[in-house]
Amino acid sequence: MARAGDAIVSRPSFGWPILLVTTEVGFHIARPMRCLASLLTALLLFALAGDAAGAPVALEKLERVAIEGQTYVRVRDWAAAAGLAFAWVQPRHSVRLTNSKLTLQLTHDSKLLAANGINLWLSYPAKVRDDRCYVSLVDLKTTLAPLATPVRNRSRMALVAIDPGHGGRDRGFYSGSRFEKTYTLLLAQELKTQLARAGIKATLVRSTDEYVDLTERADRAASRKANLLVSLHYNAAGSGNAEAQGAETFVMTPVGARSTNAQGGGGNTGPSPGNLYNDPSLMLGYLIQRSLVRNLALSDRGVRRARWEVLREAKIPAVLVEGGFMSHARESQRIYDPVFRRKQAKAIADAIVSYKMIMDP
Ligand SMILES: [Zn+2]
């Protein structure tokens, strides 16, 4: 039971505590045996999780309807049970749900959820039918509920593993002689410094220009007993999309659902260890995205879902940050600038501090 650990949480019963005070300043193929072992572990952890977690709102009691082959729930019913006020923003088009800490906005036929103005990508679009607004049960469980009624972790966050994307022979994206692996490491080092200032210990998954296999990244975090994993990357768009810019924060795709990015599918959609930590990971992803958008004025490309290996295999809450586009003329200059890098590291550190306040027992 205790193994299931850090993120399989105690019961909620509070809204967002100290939360937004002002902190916002803010494939590698595994060997078959290993594959089987991790599948069994995932199944076991799932059984334990189901038993231990318990949803703040009894979602199974909500009336379900089938829309386009998915199970949906009436938004108003859930809002009432979760203590959020429900209002139409635009009749038969968009709705707003509010409590003292949070405003959620859903729009008909859109997969975008706005949470206090920050974008989060849902797995399925919200729907309006017969003057009623519906959201898929998967999205309710994995995105709306973890934000509106967060459940504290069982143990305190004591060590953050920072994973600088790529390294060694894997250069990541590159633009001329500029390699992504260089800037992810610089950002990671700065983030460690900023976290230390906030009294939070951190360890780097790699601290030199070293090649680290994708599976090993989550393993290193686990072996050092970290209880949070933040993987750092920079983005690049294909030629013909030189205008793409902004921040994205990735969280593991819910079981059975489709990833936000076509290439983020990552094979099977069944349970992986990373799915166990959806709720705290989603909270962290939201807080980091919010901090990057508000503090650095980066364009908001949203909290997204993908089965990136580092997220899939993480046995602790984990997110992957795409801190900007190296393919964008102006944004790349910010990425290469040490002053911007310090601000970016501070923005991520602030979000981790907020996460700790909201999620620590
Ligand atoms: Zn990358």
Summarize the structure.
This protein has helices at 32-52, 75-82, 137-148, 180-197, 214-223, 278-296, 309-312, 329-335, 338-359, and strands at 64-67, 70-74, 85-90, 94-98, 103-107, 112-115, 118-121, 127-129, 132-136, 159-164, 174-175, 178-179, 201-204, 228-235, 247-251, 300-305, 318-325. It is α+β, with helices and mostly antiparallel strands.
Would you give an account of this structure?
- Helix 3 (137-148) crosses helix 6, helix 4 (180-197) crosses helix 9 (338-359) and helix 6 (278-296) runs antiparallel to helix 9.
- The chain is built from 9 helices and 17 strands.
- With 361 residues, the protein is of the alpha+beta class.
- The strands form 4 sheets. Strands 13-10-14-17-15-16 form a 6-stranded mixed β-sheet, sandwiched between helices.
- The chain folds into 2 domains: 59-148, 2-Layer Sandwich (Copper Amine Oxidase, Chain A, domain 1); 159-359, Aminopeptidase (3-Layer(aba) Sandwich), CATH 3.40.630.
- It starts with 31 loop residues before the first helix and ends with a helix.
- The longest helix has 22 residues, at 338-359.
- The protein has helices spanning 32-52, 75-82, 137-148, 180-197, 214-223, 278-296, 309-312, 329-335, 338-359, and strands spanning 64-67, 70-74, 85-90, 94-98, 103-107, 112-115, 118-121, 127-129, 132-136, 159-164, 174-175, 178-179, 201-204, 228-235, 247-251, 300-305, 318-325.
- Bound molecules: zinc ion.
